[in-house]
Amino acid sequence: MRYDVAVIGAGVVGAAIARALALHRLDVVLVEAGSDVGAGTSKANTAILHTGFDTKPGTLESRLVRRGYALLSAYGPTVGIPLERIGALLVAWDAEQQARLPEIAANARAAGYGGARAIPVADLAHLEPHLGPGAVGALAIPDETIICPFTTPLAFATEAVMNGVALRLDTRVVGRRAGDGATHVLATTRGEIHADHVVNAAGLAADEIDRLFGHDGFTVTARRGELIVYDKLARPLVRHVLLPVPTARTKGVLVSPTVFGNVVLGPTAEDVADKTATASTPAGLARLVAHGRRLVPALVDEEVTAVYVGLRAATEHGDYQIHFHPGERYVCVGGIRSTGLTASMAIAEYVLEGLADAGLKLAPRADHQPVRMPSLGERGERPYRSPAAIAGDAAYGEIVCHCERVTRGELRDALAGPLPARTLDGLRRRTRALLGRCQGFYCGAAVAALVADATETSLEDVLGVPADGRARGRA
Predict the structure, then answer these.
(1) Can you give the three-state secondary structure of 224-258, one letter per residue?
(2) Per-residue pLDDT of the chain in tens (475 residues, 90 and over written 9)
(3) From CA 101, how far away is CA 137, in angstroms rounded?
(4) Residues 304, 292: Cα–Cα separation, whole Å
(5) Which helix (H) or strand (E) element contains residue 21?
(6) Which helix (H) or strand (E) holds 406?
(7) What pLDDT score was predicted for residue 251?
(8) Which residues are catalytically annotated?
(9) Separation of alpha carbons 14 and 7, rounded Å
(10) Strands (E), 245-391
(11) Which secondary-structure segment (H or E) carries 69?
């Protein structure tokens, strides 16, 4: 089949672009090298919807983050993406950092955010009773918002699929040649794809795809960020997102509540040569604990639920690398770093403008199908505590994952929806099953059996354990 547009990469940015294209009468394909959407960098971040107060004024990133914040703040509640506007405190711990606070407030105004305000040191104890000693000043950023990093790309991709976008998973683009006329022929690990326009939103691989099209404007370096997730019992220790004074290289280590009721500490920032280096390190975790002990001393005594690692697509440039090549009918969306979740809908809007300039006809669909995602946030009405849901379907009253209160009905729905889970990881991100303090110790077998039945796969394959009972890769 020949498509009007092929989007390479089904992270939060690629999925947002596919969704925006699906609002028009177009044949679109979304191509993803992995086994699910949003399963790479997009799932492993600090899950914050940023105001853009600390972006560099005048940059494309600053513009798109501000626009993306407005778009996603409006879109999220309509489709069920959990959001909590809890605000942030940017805390200074010495005289040098304190001297930078007026500069940061001025930068925020120049970037289009006017809500930053100085907080007297005496007020910090009231705002954050468990904050560590020694703070000398702070800025309040009242509109910083926590968000579900899983539901966001899943909502975009589900809406795209419901409106006709073809999703090709486990499909890596390995080559490109010119076809008939202006058509591109993409060579993939699962056959050829013909498309009139191509959008490269391949994240960590964006530079590699860009080179297939004959361009060499940037190089992606994986920036590893390690994070620690603390148990829900730690949630009363933190009321706001607690931010450090940023440096030229990184926003630094923060402490933040999550929409799931946990507390997250991180990330580190370490450039690595391997774009698959998602293993945590003793040194990185030790650095995080040291930062956590200063920020919220009581936090490091709480139980750790999980540790995870995200790889951000850093480049040698200080801004997004979004390049339009209208004569080639090709758009490169590269260098989208930690602000990509916030900016995703604005990036999609910007890309569609460029595609229209390149000749793509954007005729709105009259039969658009809206999407509604299941409620995953603690503040939403989840099925297990909804008498109406349980009365309508008893499966919503049967809890399978007790740590996260996930019911059999939710697991069933996630395995049979328009964008069904195919793995334990996919089910985890759609339902919260296995995310709790026991990490699947009690419910793992039952959840794996449901995945095996739904996907007609052996239980051993779902669990990654061969029939002889030994874990793969071990003696």
Answers:
(1) EEEEEEECHHHHHHCCCEEEECCCCCCCCCEEEEC
(2) 899 999 999 999 999 999 999 999 999 999 999 999 999 999 988 999 999 999 999 999 999 999 999 999 999 999 999 999 999 999 999 999 999 999 999 999 999 999 999 999 999 999 999 999 999 999 999 999 999 999 999 999 999 999 999 999 999 999 999 987 768 999 999 999 999 999 999 999 999 999 999 999 999 999 999 999 999 999 999 999 999 998 765 678 999 999 999 999 999 999 999 999 999 999 999 999 999 999 999 999 999 999 999 999 999 999 999 999 999 999 999 999 889 999 999 999 999 999 999 999 999 999 999 999 998 999 988 999 999 999 999 999 999 999 999 999 999 999 998 999 999 999 999 999 999 999 999 999 999 999 999 998 898 888 876 655 554 443 2
(3) 8
(4) 12
(5) helix 12-22
(6) strand 406-407
(7) 74
(8) 50
(9) 6
(10) 254-257, 263-266, 270-272, 304-314, 321-325, 330-334
(11) helix 60-79
Nearest 5°: phi and psi at 18?
-60, -40
DSSP, res 436 = S
CA distance 194 to 467: 41
Interior/surface letters 302-325, b for 16+ CB within 10 angstroms, e for the rest: beebbbbbbbbbbbeeeebbbbbb
DSSP output for 325-345: EGGGTEEEEE---TTHHHHHH
Q: Which two tokens stand for residue 432?
A: 């919260």
How many of the other CB atoms lie within 10 Å of CB of 342?
29
Nearest of 258, 257, 265, 264 to residue 288 by alpha carbon = 265
Beta pairing, strands 145-147 & 330-334? unpaired
CA distance 88 to 85: 9
88 has which bridge partners? 141, 241
**Residues linked to residue 48 through DSSP beta bridges, in sequence order:** 146
Helix (H) and strand (E) counts for the chain? 13, 22
For residue 267, whether the previous peptide bond is cis, meaning omega lies within 30 degrees of 0, is yes
- Pairing type for strands 399-401 and 406-407 reads antiparallel
Residue 8: in which H helix or E strand, if any?
Answer: strand 2-8
* Contact assessment for residue 83 and residue 259, using Cβ atoms and an 8 Å cutoff: yes
DSSP annotation string for 105-141: HHHHHHTT----EEE-HHHHHHH-TTPPTT--EEEEE
Q: Kindly state the DSSP code that residue 473 receives in the 8-state scheme.
A: T
Distances 460 to 95, 451, 471, 475 between C-alpha atoms, Å = 57, 11, 10, 17
Q: For the whole model, what pTM was predicted? A: 0.95
What letter represents residue 418's amino acid?
Answer: P
Closest CA to 30 of 11, 44, 43: 11
